[in-house]
Automatic annotation (TrEMBL):
Pfam families linked: Retrotrans_gag
InterPro entries (alphabetical): Retrotrans_gag_dom
Retrotransposon gag domain location: 35-100
Signal peptide: none
Top-rank taxon: Eukaryota
Name recorded for this polypeptide: Retrotransposon gag domain-containing protein
Amino acid sequence: MHAFQGKNDPKVCLEWERKVEHVFDCHNYSEEKKEDMNSVMRRRFVQSHYHRGLRRKLQSLRQGSMSVEDYYKEMEIVMIKANVEEDCEATMARFIGGLKK
């Protein structure tokens, strides 16, 4: 497994978490074990203001000059990083609300 060397950088921590997730998938670790590890790492290295900033970014995200595809990808990335879990209807409403008029 890759050693974590990001000190207190939340972006480095999240990237490391993705790599570890891949290792866990390859070795068929249980979802419970994966979630426990993620929880410990996030509490220790990802500050709460980082998540608040991501949620603010998600709330204010608009298509602007992006293509519809790029806007959708950006929204998905921010939702994943912010650990937002919502039903499909809420996500669709968020997406449509940010489209150019």
